[in-house]
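Anyone opening a protein record will find just a pair of labelled lines. A complete record is shown below as an example.
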Amino acid sequence: MSHTSVAQLPESRRAFWWLVMSLALPVALQMLLQSVIGMTDVIMIGDLGATSVAAVGLASKIHFLLIVLMSGFATGCSVLIAQYSGAGDDAGCRRILSVTLIIGMVVITPFVLAFALGANSWVNWINPDPEVVRLTALYLVITAPVLWLTQLIVIYEASLRALGNTTMPLMGGMIAAVANVALNYALIYGNWGFPAMGVAGAAWATVIARGLQLAFIVGWIYWRRHGFALDWQGLLAGFDKVYMGRYIAFVLPLVANYTIWAVGNSVYHVVTGFAGTDALAVMGVLVPIESAFFALFIGFANASAILIGRSLGADRQDDAMRLYRFFNQLTFTLVILLSLVLWFARPWVLAIFDQLDAQATALLYDTLAVFCALVWLKVFNMMRIIGVLRAGGDNRFCLITDTVVMWLVGLPIYAVAVFFGHISFIWIYALMYLEDALKLWPVMHRIRHRKWMRNLTHSH
């Protein structure tokens, strides 16, 4: 199995920057492409009205919840593969992939059935508007198979990135983005001789685009006879009880963390629905904007996790600490710069989403200002948790920290503000950043005391 060797960091500054950028930029571009897919659905559905925008936004948020769950398994897979590759254990990398594929598909199947067979019966639990409920359920029923496709995609992508191959996931993302835009154009409004399907057209476009993405990635792996091109025997190796037990023990806190965080994030969205249709429409627009903003930082967090993980797997703790300091300084510079850019670009953002009415447009303008002022809190926590603590498998600390600040402080205060505060949505939105402010010091303290520095290959 070939991969870029990064256990030993390059000595020259130019070579080091080239390594970081080769790992970070393809991931950032892919995250940007994914946000483009989200924005495409919202923008292209916009002419159907605020109700359709709200429905697609809500359905996307539910999908996001489950993608985060999938990402828990994928991230655990990536952390372990990065450390095993740092230790030079290719067989261990393949075993981790097979275990993750098996467990990931078993876990996601009940949700596929809930989307395909029961969406019409439970969507009304999370939104009071009957038309929003109808359109959201329609979208979820059609896109149920996307959950299977996406689970496989995120696992294979995470595994390839852990070996330093960020190019193939990017190319797969490009195929999905282009296909989604073209199919949205054809199916939402009935262009190129296709039927006008509205929200259903956006859903079918997503299904087909994800199918093409998976076919490309898996096809390339087997065509190149990559180490991850598992044969039947390689896949069955994932059923080893001892190895599977160790993997589950490692990944369970991580998956629980992702799930609890994702459910909480979705609860924020659900509670926002009770602040009014305009507020929900604004949040539907903000989701892809936030994704686009975070793309570069997710890329650098990925690069940080790969480099730090391989350093730890090779027992190079001093290199891991130097990498943390480098990425921390880089994050500070970039978040200030990009926040200023977005602040001054708000009029152009509003021009893109010109389908919103005047009241929702004014609300979006002010909400973006709050985002620019407070987003640094989320970015610093994201970089330090994803790019540093999880690279060393410090999953229990992350689970406890996220759960306490979100469910005992952030969400209760936010819900009280929505239902009883009688205040502008601008201030309600600002409260979404309270938990990030509370996490900032504990996370930084944990990193400085180096309790997260573990070589996971010794126990897995």
